Amino acid sequence: MNVALHKEPFHYIEITDMYSKDEYEQMMNEMLQYENDNLLLPPDNTGTATDEETEVPLKSNKGLFIDTIFNRRECSKILTLNRKLFAVLASDITNDSWFFKGKPSNHDFTLLSYYENSDYYRPHIDGTDITALTWFYKKPKKFTGGDLLFTEYDIKIECKENYTIIFPGNIRHEVSKVFIDAEYSNNQNGRFTMTQFLTNKYNG
After folding, report:
1. What range does the domain containing 102 cover?
2. Are 121 and 145 spatial neighbours (Cβ–Cβ below 8 Å)?
3. Cβ atoms of residues 66 and 110 within 8 Å
4. Is the pLDDT of residue 124 over 90?
């Protein structure tokens, strides 16, 4: 795992090789099973951002809030292994960031999204303090696009396997359209994203 803090034009953390090979495979297999079982839902059922005038969803993909289907976190490899994110946010790297050091997050919920051919997510902001994205896909990679764009800063983060980016949820961002050749489409060859939305849940 390699962790880097960026402070310009806003504070964000990049992590390459977030998970070990075994962890990645376990999480990927769980994602593929959800897709096989048709558990991934259309945008209307995954809390999507919508156009302010038309109220049409800003995204085209399928998704599932994984927390809603398990009574115990340990029943899911994804929900168990993604606790690593909190270790990163508690590490010394955040000492140099006024944003991350000042945002103690102790609660999250996890959205799994799947992008097939022509899927996208138009510019939007998230309603939580911190957003963390991790990307998964079958190898070799059969799609292009699906990159993360920070709309107001002309920054493009290429979609890479086992890569995590953590950033303020109120920074406007989007996902560029995914392109998959017809021979590979509709066979789980697209872009899986694990999104962790982080907040501070107070007791009492």
Report:
1. 2-199
2. no
3. yes
4. yes
Q: What does the angle CA 97 – CA 93 – CA 25 come to, to the nearest 5 degrees?
A: 120
Task: Determine whether 75 is exposed, middle or buried from the number of CB atoms within 10 Å of its CB (0-12, 13-18, 19+).
Answer: exposed
In this predicted model, what pLDDT tens digit does every residue of 5-62 receive, in sequence order?
Answer: 999 999 999 999 999 999 999 999 999 999 999 999 999 888 777 877 787 888 999 9
Chain position carrying tokens 């799947």 = 114
Query: Both tokens of residue 44?
Result: 């209307």
Measured distance CA(126)–CA(199) in Å, rounded: 11
Task: Give CA–CA dist 133/163, Å, rounded.
Answer: 8
CATH number of the domain bearing residue 59: 2.60.120.620
| Domain-located, residue 64 | yes
Average pLDDT, the chain: 93
CA distance 177 to 146: 6
Q: How far is 24 from 78, CA to CA, in rounded Å?
A: 9
Environment class of 80 (CB within 10 Å of its CB; exposed 0-12, middle 13-18, buried 19+): middle
Task: Count structural domains, the chain.
Answer: 1
Residue type, position 102, single letter: G
Q: Is position 86 within any domain?
A: yes
pLDDT in tens, 141-172: 999 999 999 999 999 999 999 999 999 999 99
